[in-house]
Amino acid sequence: MIEALQNARQKLLDGRVEAGHWEGELSTSALSTATAVVALGSVDEKKYARSLDAATAWLIENQNEDGGWGDTVKSFSNISTTLLCWSALTRFGRESAGPAVSAARGWIHDYVGSLSPHLIAETVKARYGKDRTFSVPILMLCAICGTLGPKGWRLVLRLPFELAAFPREWFAVMRLPVVSYALPALIAIGYAGHRRGFSGWINHPLWPRVSRLLEEIQPASGGFLEAAPLTSFVTMALVAAGEKNHPVAGRGVDFLLNTVRPDGSWPIDTNLATWSTTLSVKALAATQEGQVRGSTLFEGQEKVLDWLLGQQYQEVHPFTNSAPGGWAWTDLSGGVPDADDTPGALLALALLDDGSRREEIRNAAGKGVVWLLDLQNRDGGIPTFCRGWGALPFDRSSEDLTAHTLRAWHRWKPFLNEEVSARVDEATKSALRYLKKQQRSDGSWCPLWFGNQYRLVDEENPTYGTAMVVRALDEIGESSLAQGGVRWLLEHQNEDGGWGALKGDTPSTIEETALAVSTLASRREASAAVADGIKWLVRETEEGTCFEASPIGFYFARLWYFEQSYPVIWTAEAFGRASRFQAIEG
Hints:
4 strands
């Protein structure tokens, strides 16, 4: 294993960009590509013909054998992405798209039961329930492309864009039908629905006001959340509403043209630079045998520290109205501070602190700790972006974020002032009550932002969630509460020595196996399981040199992605923790 550890560590270090940090590489997305096609085609089909031809050719080439499309090239076909690709190719594909369109039509017919626009709309709405964040944009795109028939706009549910004119502080109590990060979609798609489906092109007196707001919250890059789908939906909605020349649409087009990949496709997001960097720092710390506070983790860590400190938000965020002090997933302007990247940054800062900039680091960490304290919900859990938004799944408290936050609070508590330290004590008690309540009868916990596509019914990933919670509980001295989770992980190791999301039903992956090994490595009762897991990882990664990524990540609205850096990062960490805590031969 020592050779594999050294190889994986070097592979991780080699993944840095020239500036010294990590960006990783997100999977290309059929969903992103289809939405970008419709956005660019809606603005000017002739002007962007070259981009459209390349993108539609990519969609045709990457259609699944069953006629549908998944969110990534490794994903199973699903109704949402297949509808988007079918519609994009129907409207903007050339003659060569005919066979792909026909195959997609067959897949949709088999899935829905017919090609009735009404049944298609009902199927999409049923998939997302009360959350209209994604169901309404899908149906809007279909209406734009004509695949919902001549009266398609009547099937596009109304989004109350007028509510965006109210003070942002009211949003949580207004129970909006979209999640907190979807304000641009609420405005643009809501207005398009007003103009196309409900008013006969009547102007709305509030449009000038919310139009200005839409401009104000658009990032400098032009990309909302740095994501092609949301940016594309906003752009095509403005065109559909008769606002083709709106400044937001123009900047949205610029973003799409600047982020297209050489093969004509688009990723689900530009990058996860902050997330990848903080994960990498934690992994490298695990590979440093005997590493103590203040020691050097790797050559060039000062550049990473500078970069990471520079990513902390210093002003109220215009998108979610979030207070200063948090970190987003990316270093680009479209990021939004959140409760996974903020604790990740706090943990990384503690590891990067070599003593030379202690006051600066502690000041930044103190702000981050308070940011997380202020985010905690009444139930004791930690939501992703905004406190109090509990109506829809991706705004509720979640076990993985709560666990990550507990680790960060615990790491920095000795260096906080008395008032903040007391708040951490109370918040920790509340968070532990939340985790205890959320633990399932079998001992597991489930995460919000990660899943497993082989779990066809619920797409859940209890391996990730349980590993995150058990790791946090062990670190903060609550190992007794973690016992059920440890037992669950041991019971759900696959026969081959690896882990999927559930024993037997899901194949082992590098990511899930590495996470389970890292979590169990510190426990003596798990030594045999850890040894088997390490053997599986050594074999599967060819001694730490070859890493096949799996689509276990969830993006917004449960869109699948895989990240090329995940298996490298988590394997390096697993090897490091196993070598430190367990006597494993080889």
